[in-house]
Amino acid sequence: MIFNFDREFQSMMQEHNLTIVILLGHLNPDGDAAGSVMGLAHYIKVNYPQYKVLPYLADTLDKGPKKQVSMDKVFNPFEKPDVEEKYGVIVCDTAVLARMIGRKYYEGAEASIVIDHHASNEGYGDVNYTKISEACAENVYYILDENKLKNTIDCEISPTAADYIYMGILHDTGCFNRVQVSTMQAAMKLLEMGVDHSYVMQTMYKDTLESLQKRLELLKRAERLLDGAVACVCINHAECETEEISYEDIHPISGFLRDCEDIKLGFTMYEEEENRWRCSFRSDGKWINVNELLQAFGGGGHAAAAGVRKRTNDVEKFKQEILERIIMMRKFSVQDK
After folding, report:
1. Is Hydrolase included in the keywords of this UniProt record (predicted)?
2. How far apart are CA 46 and CA 50, in angstroms?
3. CB 184 within 8 A of CB 78
4. What's the average model confidence in pLDDT over 91-114?
5. Pick from 7, 21, 70: which is nearest to 206 by CA?
């Protein structure tokens, strides 16, 4: 039986006598987190006007989706919620508590609902709906009442709930590069409702000539590993400071590397502060499952896209440990065939 968001939401609010709901995503929210959070916020606002709705994404939202969110005439999710009364919480696209933005709001809530699509979800929350899919926003689409979702388009100007949900799907699938039949069916239904693809597509355009030139320099640093099947770019904190390289600059590089015809796995290692490394991994999900790879190091995500944070003063040793695990996983994978 499919998860019924309307029933679960009303049950949470009524059973705990709540009038306020806060919606949260993950740290450094991307288009999927923003689309899921803002889509649900607008859906609730239109269909359940008796409740106060407070989405929170913070100001670290990716540049692309931030364009659409900044045009929102209803909500300002960059402001921290100011609440004195009791409230409920809905968390989207967040597999682990440690990665949640505004965690204090979750911990102070009377009740919580979690909606996610990561295989690595910890199972937290009073009600946890986690279905492995290409985008959390895809799950959001399928758990909502279609007529009520259409109602948000009739009652609001863009960006509407449907616009946001479409944005989430668009971003986490890489413009439909990674999809299932259900993903395309959801996108088709949203377009039939009136979502303007070209309008939402603008959120994918976030590059400037300077940012592309910076990424070109980063790509020049790529080193091939494991007989050329793997490629990596590693930037330490001193280089980040001197060359003004942000995580936003390096984050897409792992995907660029993975998309090369002769590379099976691309990853980046970015020292965001001294001895604190933030790493991003991209594969096709088949040659190596990067979620399984990184779970051994306290990270995770999806089969084709995952990440990990690591405190270490010896990043080369950490890199070698990762490579050794890749070799081991590949060995067992070949033996199983």
Report:
1. yes
2. 10
3. no
4. 95
5. 70
pLDDT at 179: 87
Sort residue 87 into left (φ over 0), alpha (ψ -120 to 50) or beta: beta
185 φ, ψ to 5°? -65, -40
Residue 86: name the closest of 21, 27, 174, 145 by CA. 21
Cα(64)–Cα(66) distance, integer angstroms: 5
pLDDT digits (tens, 9 = 90+) for 194-212: 999 998 998 877 778 888 8
The C-alpha angle with vertex 176 and arms to 165 and 196, in degrees rounded to 5, equals 50
pTM of the model: 0.84
Give long-range contacts, CB 8 A cutoff, 24+ apart: 256-262. Answer: 256/215, 256/219, 257/219, 257/222, 257/231, 257/232, 257/233, 257/282, 258/282, 258/283, 258/284, 260/231, 262/228
Asked whether 266 and 257 are in contact (CB, 8 A), the reply is yes
The answer to which of 103-112, 184-193, 196-205, 285-294 has the lowest mean pLDDT is 196-205
**What token pair was written down for 93?**
């696209």
Go through the domains of the chain in sequence order and give each one's CATH number: 5-204 (3.90.1640.10), 209-336 (3.10.310.30)
Widest CA span in the chain: 61
Residue 241: Cβ-neighbour burial (10 angstroms; 0-12, 13-18, 19+): exposed
Q: Give the length of the chain.
A: 337
Phi/psi at 253 (nearest 5 deg)? -60, -40
pLDDT band at 58 (very low <50, low <70, confident <90, very high): confident
Q: Which residues pair with 100 in a beta bridge?
A: 26
- For residues 235 and 210, give the distance between their C-alpha atoms in angstroms, rounded to a whole number: 18
DSSP one-letter code for 253: H
| Lowest-confidence pick of 45-59, 131-145, 151-165, 194-208 | 194-208
